[in-house]
Amino acid sequence: MARPREFDTDEALDKAMTLFWKDGYERASLNNLLEAMEIQRSSFYNSFGDKRQVFIMALKRYMTWVNDDWIVKVLDESEDGLSAIETIFVTYVGVFEKDKQCKGCLMVNTMVELAPHDAEIAALVSDELQKIEDAFYRALTRAREADLIPDRLDLRSTASFLVNNLSGLRVLARQTSDRKSFESVVDIAMSVLKK
Question: Rounded to an integer, what distance in angstroms lies between the CA atom of residue 30 and that of residue 139?
Fold first, then answer.
């Protein structure tokens, strides 16, 4: 008879996610993971497989939490679209300013560290970025309908521009927690949308 799990899988996965977010995939050793997750080696292998599998599970959890449950929801639930776009950027400024560890964004960190040489992870990140771009596009469409943004803007290109600026902001957050640095990026990005 198999022994019951003696740990909360979701809690352990959250702890792994935090470690990967802070240290990256390569720097997070198996011993670091076991210590962070507070589980034994046998429990790790039985529940999660290996380091790569726990990383993919943690990355998917992060992307659902940050992108699907927050970014896409905020963009899709706004009436005019433009205010939601600004909310996304301003909120990130506040989050990154408070992050003195300069963790940045796990998804963007992964895009830089692993996507260039791991096709499965590259596809995961690419799909997630497309979800965000599509949500920006829908928000921009509502903003156009409300006559809040310039007619000259191509909405699909502008949605891509916003994703790239948001990604750049997330990369910058690996280097600094200086609010002024973030605000200058946001100000320029938002200036493109002003009539």
Answer: 42
Joined together, the tokens standing for residue 60 give 């998917």
- Record the pTM: 0.90
Q: Above pLDDT 90, what percent of the chain?
A: 92
Q: What are phi and psi of 119, to 5 degrees?
A: -60, -40
Q: Return the DSSP state at 115.
A: G
Identify which of 184, 174, 43 has the alpha carbon closest to the alpha carbon of residue 106.
174
What are the chain's domains?
58-191 (1.10.357)
The sign of the torsion formed by the CA atoms of 27, 65, 75, 115 equals positive
Backbone angles phi, psi at 162, to 5 degrees: -65, -40
Sign of CA dihedral 132, 133, 139, 142: negative
Residue whose pair of structure tokens reads 């596809």 in the numeric block: 123
Reported as a single tens digit per residue, the pLDDT across 60-107 is 999 998 888 899 999 999 999 999 999 999 999 999 999 999 999 999
Q: How far apart are CA 43 and CA 55, in angstroms?
A: 16
Over residues 165-191, the mean pLDDT reads 95
